[in-house]
Amino acid sequence: MTTEQFVLVDYENVQPTNLQRLRDQGFRIRVFLGAAQERLPLSMVSSLQVFGPALEYVQTSGVGPNALDFYIAYFLGRKTLELPRHLRSQGLACRRVTTVEEIISEQNLLQSVHALPLEQMLERVLNHLSRAAITRPRAVKTLRSTINSLFGKKLTDSQIDDVIMAMKNTGFVLKDSPRLVYRLDQPLAGGTHDNQSAGATPELTVPTDADAPNTAMHIAGLMN
User: I want to staple 130 with a disulfide (CB 3.0 to 4.6 A). Which of 13, 172, 194, 211 is the partner?
Assistant: First the structure.
């Protein structure tokens, strides 16, 4: 899955001086300007030139309190319509921040989670589900939510798909309709989990589809 990343700047309320720190993070920058903002500091314009075609100024005609909020909301709505139909119902990953440092911190966390090996994610999920004190999800939708929560709700849909597929391929999920049926009393190939027992070790395989049109969007709004 590829991810489009945007930073939307409400320049009436936030005037960041260090956006160039995001240059290597893959963001596209949109600076929303109020009707009365016809001039920008040379220092800011110069620092933003490093983004090249990834930078765009959006001059608006709205006036009044929070006028730019409506333009930013409209932008988000338009971007939602651009998502592939099968992802549209999940919406966009958006958050409101006030500093560039918050964006960088979040990016570092996302990168560490997105780099996790499948085997490590699978083992963590199985350890959680093997605990006697928990109620295991009985629907795929609930299982997806549980898996994502274990990783701070930072996983991509593709990562969650891969974990569930691996659970099926390795025999830890025997049935997923109408309700999930688990078999957690077996060892995990290449590792262990809490409820291990003797027996054959299933092979971990995950089919991939490189042509799937999965394009997600991650948007940070610099607002106050």
Answer: 194
